[in-house]
What we know:
24 helices
Amino acid sequence: xxxxxxxxxxxxxxxxxxxxxxxxxxxxxxxxxxxxxxxxxxxxxxxxxxxxxxxxxxxxxxxxxxxxxxxxxxxxxxxxxxxxxxxxxxxxxxxxxxxxxxxxxxxxxxxxxxxxxxxxxxxxxxxxxxxxxxxxxxxxxxxxxxxxxxxxxxxxxxxxxxxxxxxxxxxxxxxxxxxxxxxxxxxxxxxxxxxxxxxxxxxxxxxxxxxxxxxxxxxxxxxxxxxxxxxxxxxxxxxxxxxxxxxxxxxxxxxxxxxxxxxxxxxxxxxxxxxxxxxxxxxxxxxxxxxxxxxxxxxxxxxxxxxxxxxxxxxxxxxxxxxxxxxxxxxxxxxxxxxxxxxxxxxxxxxxxxxxxxxxxxxxxxxxxxxxxxxxxxxxxxxxxxxxxxxxxxxxxxxxxxxxxxxxxxxxxxxxxxxxxxxxxxxxxxxxxxxxxxxxxxxxxxxxxxxxxxxxxxxxxxxxxxxxxxxxxxxxxxxxxxxxxxxxxxxxxxxxxxxxxxxxxxxxxxxxxxxxxxxxxxxxxxxxxxxxxxxxxxxxxxxxxxxxxxxxxxxxxxxxxxxxxxxxxxxxxxxxxxxxxxxxxxxxxxxxxxxxxxxxxxxxxxxxxxxxxxxxxxxxxxxxxxxxxxxxxxxxxxxxxxxxxxxxxxxxxxxxxxxxxxxxxxxxxxxxxxxxxxx
Length: 679
């Protein structure tokens, strides 16, 4: 076992038995490289990454390759989910140098951490225009030994280029207005796939944040085209192979335009964001499909990703052992079916029904004649009771297959996203168990991740905090989750905790011009302080912070928090009209800011029918980013409840913008109309 055996990260532990003499990221590795006068080989990946597993098996487990690596390099392995700052800095360099990126990421560094040669996956031997990994090692070793000045010049140029990319908020930073939001909608319309839904071509990623922007834009403006794009995209995804038709939950992305064949890893952040998007779609349309998918995705997160300590694990692997072939891991083996496998489980008659319903063919849609389950036809054309039996028997049979591995580390940011999604879904669909799961995850983050200084640990495992400091997205997404809990539970402690985290954002992650950084001012210094306002697989720390700051300001009336949110949204005004797909959450937050957001206070006795009716009407509203406080008259639990009396002795709802309120109402139907809820 190498040094990684002492680490907490499941990804690093996967490499603990490699013959490679791996080091974890840290000053010690750099000092060792300087002492030996050799370059650093930095390998970055994550536990559920298919090609990371492939390169590990082909090269890192190979004794001959490991011997070359150990003799000529200091080899450093990084879990990108544990150290997103390290990943971001060097991925920016990889993309600048090569025009592309991905994982595993392979970067060669000077002992000072300056990059000079880049790549992603390298095969063991030359293949399809790619050099073999041993060739790369030999070439880098020769360059280091014979052309050191050239290496130093390349590294210095790269570091200077990265330093010149720093963003400032600038005096011109302003809130996006109607022109920018309309241009962003037009940009999405141009990229929209009218046949399959979603945006762009293959590979196609679920556009959860763009969907939230479209739904909020429709709620604010009534633009039917925005709603249609969101609804059609969500339906196509839910009927495709990217959605697990037996167990619920979404895979990472589709390798084709039609959502047929996924890359099978299932990530917590994707499912949290999509659960929230489908819940919002249901609020807007009442779609039975949206309701089913939102709840099945929520149940997947709780059932498959829930940890014993109350949090949520990061991911399920794409690979698992096929039945009857132990020791070999194959992508998608747990999820795909052949006609023969259907017959074995269901018998001839029901296998025919299942094949027609789920799109299983003799040719297959995946590999070796297997098919990914889809829903090509409406459920209404089949006998519902018989179909339910088929689905349950297939699911039970699948449970007997070798399961994909699970990355058990708890990431603060992604748990924050899950808390927000589960709290909202539980409240909207009247599933208190989902709200309880959100509260339990919040309790874990407070108990394990948050210290007495209000500093967050990025990760934990088995109830023990990891050593990596939280980054901006951790503080922002956890604050977002806590604000959702405040609205749903009515407990002021969650608002207070969100405030503590957002004070850290303002004090330690904000520059002199109001610009945001992904790492704190007192964090480990890298070759550049990472800073990225664009949304990728999850909201950027920048746009997540803007959203949480805006919601906190709506809850409390804090002008400094509102001003910080507006400064952060300045970058959305610049990027939204040009690249709307890459600032989806920033645009969704901007819609909330333009709309207000609405501040809704419901005062009345807990459990009283009239109070419950008003609370329900508020929860079902579609007003972008509206915040809610529910409590007894005179309660000091939440600031929105202050000075909100009953009306004629009856429970009442107050709807305000910037703490300027409409006349209170005691009528749930009037409140529904005010907040855009369906009748």
